[in-house]
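Deviations from the work plan: none for this task. Representative record:
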Amino acid sequence: MRVVYPKRRLRSVRTLLIAVAAVLWFFLGGPFFIVGPEEEGVVLTFGRHTASVGPGLHLKFPWPIQRVYTPAVNVVQRIEIGFRTLGSDPNQFIGFENNQDMLDEGQMLTGDENIINVAVIVQYRISDSAAWLFNVRDPEGTLRDIAEASIRQVIGDNAIDAVLTTGKLEIQNRIVEQVQSMCSEYGLGIDIIAVQLMDVQPPAQVSASFKDVATAREDMQAYINEAEAYRNEQMPAAIADSVVIVNQALSYAATRVNAAHGEADAFTAVALEYSRNPRVTAARLHLEALQTVLSQAHVTVVDGSAGALTHYNLSGGPQ
Amino acid sequence: MKHVGRLVVISLAVVAFLVLTGSLFVVSETEQAVVLQFGRPVRVVLGDRTEEQEALIDAWMAEHAPGITISHGAGLYFKIPFLQQVSIFDDRMLEYDDEPADVVTMDKKHLQVDCYARWRIINPLLFMTSVQTVGAARSRIDDIVYSVLRQELGRSNLIHIVRSTNNPVGLGQFVRLVNNVTYTDTLGDLVMDQGEVSEVVSLVRVPEGQGRQALLDRVTVNSRSLSLAYGIWIVDVRIKRADLPSENQAAVFARMQAERSRTSTRYRAEGQRIAATIRAETDLAVQTIRAEANRSMYEIRGSADSTAAAIYSQAYGSYPDFYSFSRSLSTLSSVMGSDDQIVVSTDGGIFHYLTASPGESR
């Protein structure tokens, strides 16, 4: 038995299919396209690049006559070497410390045959969208290859200490030059905005001895500081002592000279008195002195008229 | 009849469509094409070429496919339907990435080398006849690049593969360039300058025509001349990574540690030297200060003593007789103490009065 569909129903199915196809065509390959604010619209007519348009709504001939690509030309993009950030949080990343692939990527030889680990970012922007789209297959992968080769070449041309410390800026500039010149040679159509050495470390196997250099430098400073402290302690003490010694001498001198003046004045006064009346003054002074001496000492008086020293008292002073 | 008429219309439409599509083909910006007529090439559509490449292609075409039409640029092209076939090839720069390989350098060191090359098909007709596919082309390139690179690396010392130029960054600060030193002289000396210890690294001089850049330029040129036989233009060959195998790294790490510990030792030794100098200088200064103070002391005292002596001698000199008299008396009083015995006679002096009669004089 043959099923006969109503003609009207068949027709409505067909209409629906045509409508769906038309809508799909309209939006996917149809007569207009939208270029976002960060994009550029590159229009191909029968495969030939015929126009480049800015952001906004644009008309075109439908596929298969025209096709449009919209690369993001105004966005600064970056590639990471020696590390990868995970998601949008820049603190979440895998690096050469904990990942063998990153270590293979970031570890390299320096020009003095040392080994160093670096993490680098290369920032770039598409400057020529047609070149970016048409010249090179896999432009991102190509840029990554260029960047890796350039970084190794520049680091390989420098001493490890320059890479670790003062040479960073110069090295970054050289990498920028190298990457940019290779990009131009390949016709990648990009501008290199910056290359940054994010992290430069000696390998884990030798990092202790590198840290010890810093410790040794601090030790050196500590030794010097201790000696400075010794100097700061000793010098003022010595100066204080010397001030004491000199002042003691000055006070001795003052005492001595003043005493001399005093004694001399006293002597002169007495001498003047003496010269005025020598006999009396001499007798007085003589007797005063005898009084002082004889009043203290043990005096034994012997009678001179006896003709001899008849009495001795040798037993000594007051016991 | 109506039915038949409809069939004819549809058939004609199909034929017209086939003829139309069969006579048109699109070459995109990223593509190039070869048109064959019964297997004989009649036309090539090429993208941008440099003058050098253009000349090579023209010469080859003149010899191998005379009378062929050479068109340039993307767009819509015509061909004879059914009789002519079109083969499309990629016109972009293509990648070739080698597996890392162990290479022995001229100085018998091992190096793990990972290189890449960028290439493009410049002569699609030659490419089509000699290798056909991109995959097959890669294995040809592999053969070429691998052998050329290995040959060049084997002629270079390891350090010349790592280095490119003779003007490294940091020159004069950490690094001193020394002419004509051999490779074993890279261990330098330590210098102490204004509190900073630095290693004087005698970087090996890269001779003219040596170094990574020069080496790769040669590899590129040699590989390119070999690959032209396949219609392939090698843009360049680069060393992406050239690292020591892990068993050789240990030796480098040991050397790095030794170098750093020399620096550490030098810092500490310098610290002790400077500290000892400061202490010794301090001791000297302290001794000097004390000695100078003592000298001042003696000078002051001496000068005071001489001033006093002058004062005394002036006073006493005026009355010498009285001086000896009064000085004798005072000496007498100071010499005689309370413990002394004095035996005196009544024959003279004041004790005469002990025995003398009143009014009697001496």
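The first strand of chain A starts at residue 32 and ends at 35.
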